[in-house]
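RECORD TYPE: inverse folding
INPUT: structure tokens
STRUCTURE:
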């Protein structure tokens, strides 16, 4: 499961899981947003994020890896319903809270569409 450090989920952390930390910029392609930040500054960057908070980020280079880890956890849950997760994926970000909302929306979008 992806545990986002911005919002605490109700699921308990597995005690014996292997924790994998993934950067938000590795999980999602945030190049366009980074360009806005670098070229136009923080205020324009935050305004852009607020205006696009319901548009999910596209998958980044770590997305297929996280998807595979989630598939392993799902398969193990099917085989051993009483067991813990094998992998605990933690999303790491140093972005502003407005970006955090968009990250959460992106994760939820990709889960609903079965991408993640």
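DESIGNED SEQUENCE:
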């Amino acid at each position: 499961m992806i545990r986002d450090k911005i919002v605490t989920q109700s699921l308990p952390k597995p005690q014996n899981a292997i924790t994998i930390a993934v950067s938000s910029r590795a999980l999602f392609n945030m190049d366009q947003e980074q360009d806005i930040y670098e070229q136009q500054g923080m205020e324009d960057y935050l305004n852009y994020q607020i205006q696009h908070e319901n548009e999910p980020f596209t998958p980044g280079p770590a997305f297929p890896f996280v998807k595979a880890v989630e598939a392993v956890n799902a398969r193990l849950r099917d085989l051993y319903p009483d067991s813990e997760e094998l992998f605990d994926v933690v999303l790491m970000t140093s972005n502003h809270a407005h970006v955090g909302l968009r990250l959460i929306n992106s994760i939820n979008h990709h889960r609903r569409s079965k991408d993640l």
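NOTES: Residues 63-79 form the longest helix (17 residues).
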